[in-house]
Amino acid sequence: MFDKIPVNKNATTKAKQLLEYLVDTAGNAIITGQHTQTNPMEEYHYIHELTGHFPKLVGFELLSYSPNINYDDASEECLTEVYENRDTLETAMRIAETTDSILTFCFHWFSPIGGRDKAFYSKHTDFDASKVLIDGSPEREAFFSDLRHIAELLIPFRDKNIPILWRPFHEVEGDWFWWGKKGGEVAKELYLLMYHLYVDEYHLDNLLWVWSSPTKESYPGDDYVDVIGWDIYLPEKEYTDYADKYKKLVAETTTRKVCAITEVGYMPDMNKLKESHIPWAYFMTWSKEFCFDGDYNTTEDTKNVYKNDYSIKL
User: Fold this and answer.
1) Which tens digit of pLDDT belongs to each residue from 281-310?
2) How far apart are CA 309 and CA 280, in angstroms?
């Protein structure tokens, strides 16, 4: 039904096995996932204390590794987020080496030039992503400098043969991030520049490539994507299998790739999924208030997800 062979022809055996596992899971069960916003991984441990299980998939954030963080012109909130995320890759490595977890990385990338405060947001930077596509431009040089910096940080995971669900340039259906501000076509080209650098030059063959946006014009194409996803935040609480979102996602992208709810506010309803078998491979609840305080997912919601035999957890 879905492609089981990674788009990178040199993908590692473990990367191939992970993609096969995702495809085999979709429609038969769903992998539980949780983003961890801070290095102590409070969400991860909270779920275990509450349910007796850890999420099978764990999300990590690379924002603190951005080379161009403007510390002198940043709010306390921004600095707190940066400091809380420091050394998170060391934590990710420990989780990979000591548990049977699946890792997924995203990157709220502070703009390569300029910006203040949380400069991954368009409103905090005048960085023009379209100029990255111009040979010799300062924007292009800074873009590639940052890409190389991050590639070096990913090499240890490659060398230790740890597969990663790599999810760059997410949510380009909106203009709130600088990589999406100039539209889907530009975002697609940025993704392809990264793809070719990381695959052809750095040989990061442990990465599976996750595209997280439900728009036709931005989709990079079946030759460059292993998993398609959508970051779904409903305006109000609903117990749902997200069947309508699944149908829209594949209609706007492709029917060949396995699908995931790559971020979510309200966790999917396990009983509805068990009945409908909508083929989501995994979901990943976002961090902090989406996990903890009950405004989004109550303690009973979380317990119901993790005790259900349709969900895969540790």
Assistant:
1) 999 999 999 999 888 999 999 999 999 999
2) 15
